Amino acid sequence: MTANSVSETLLGLDSLLTEEERRWQTKARTFASDRVSPTIEKDFEDAVFRREFVAELGALGMLGMHLTGYGTAGANATSYGLVCYELEAADTAWRTFVSVQGSLAMSALAYFGSDEQKEQWLGSLASGASIGCFGLTEPSGGSDPAAMLTRATRSGDDWVLNGSKRWIGLGSVADVAIVWAQTDEGVRGFVVPTDTPGFRAVDIESKLSLRASIQCDLFFDDVRLPTSAQLPGARGLSAPFRCLNDARYGIVWGVMGAARDCLDVAIERSKTREAFGKPIGAMQLTQLKLADSFVEYEKGMLLALHLAKLKDAGALTPEQISVGKLNNVREAIRIASTARSILGGDGITGDFPVMRHMNNLESVRTYEGTDEIHTLVLGRALTDHAAFR
């Protein structure tokens, strides 16, 4: 692992990590710095998703690393969080990839799939030989999945799937989609190979965020599936929500990586940029900005570590994950914005990563539950009254 930055040294997180956890962090940081960082500004500008990285991440054991069996690593929650942290410090696109592949598609198969489904897909997804996506969000209401319009109906011994999904990561490069649909028996999950007739994925190209990633519209036009395509263990929305909680947990760590990168750039710039005859880092207002940003970064990291310990103990609740996702994304955005102000006009250029992180974090603020949804989750926990409707 490269030498710790000033912000990391001051935080002193290393002393709270095990040797195995630090090993995972080192692997992720090396991959991020050697593979992602050298081209990410151009990849973001040109909207390039580097598929060759997928197998490399698989070889490093980072795909579905929180799972056990079928070639997965069986790593603990802190190790998985640290991988998310280091990947997002390079760019949100690659933490998003690990989340979609591992915490969503692979988790759905691991938790709810049949033995045959697991045997067919989990090994190839873990190695990166295959790519998976997770189709839950719909155009008419991402925050209200209970109102989904995609429907699967019985036709003899088969299922026939019709409808659409939106903002589905990796849809056009995926080999398999985990698709959630209404049935006469409630919401169910289906394993849909993307070469099935009637399945179509269209890239969303007008993005100003997550440009080194892929998000899609999915369309299902009389997609005929065998009975064996249904995830046998998935009943109702609690099934996709369990997967979403895995992904949200990774976000709690990941966004702190983006915050760290912005903070480190601002600290370094404050030492070299001069105004009024001295470095701007010698000015009180700049030091106030840096100190406030560091305190929020430290709090976010300690919150992530606390949630990791709860997760490994089997005691982490959805409400606690909402605290982490709401706080850490919100504070990462504030840290990035403050860093941009320290950089002045240069902060909006591709010479620095800050504006790219700011744009990406706006997407993270929206997906896996908006600020508003997580606020209402906490409000319900605090008052015993649901204010969603």
TrEMBL record:
The keyword Oxidoreductase applies. Gene3D superfamilies: Acyl-CoA dehydrogenase/oxidase, N-terminal domain, Butyryl-CoA Dehydrogenase, subunit A, domain 2, Butyryl-CoA Dehydrogenase, subunit A, domain 3. InterPro entries: Acyl-CoA_DH_CS, Acyl-CoA_Oxase/DH_mid-dom, Acyl-CoA_Oxase/DH_mid-dom_sf, AcylCo_DH-like_C, AcylCo_DH/oxidase_C, AcylCoA_DH/ox_N, AcylCoA_DH/ox_N_sf, AcylCoA_DH/oxidase_NM_dom_sf. The keyword Transit peptide applies. PROSITE patterns: ACYL_COA_DH_1 (PS00072). Residues 18-128 form the Acyl-CoA dehydrogenase/oxidase N-terminal domain. Its cofactor is FAD. Its EC number is 1.3.8.6. Residues 235-382 form the Acyl-CoA dehydrogenase/oxidase C-terminal domain. One of its GO terms (molecular function) is glutaryl-CoA dehydrogenase activity. Residues 133-223 form the Acyl-CoA oxidase/dehydrogenase middle domain. Keywords: FAD, Flavoprotein, Oxidoreductase, Transit peptide. Belongs to the acyl-CoA dehydrogenase family. This is glutaryl-CoA dehydrogenase (ETF).
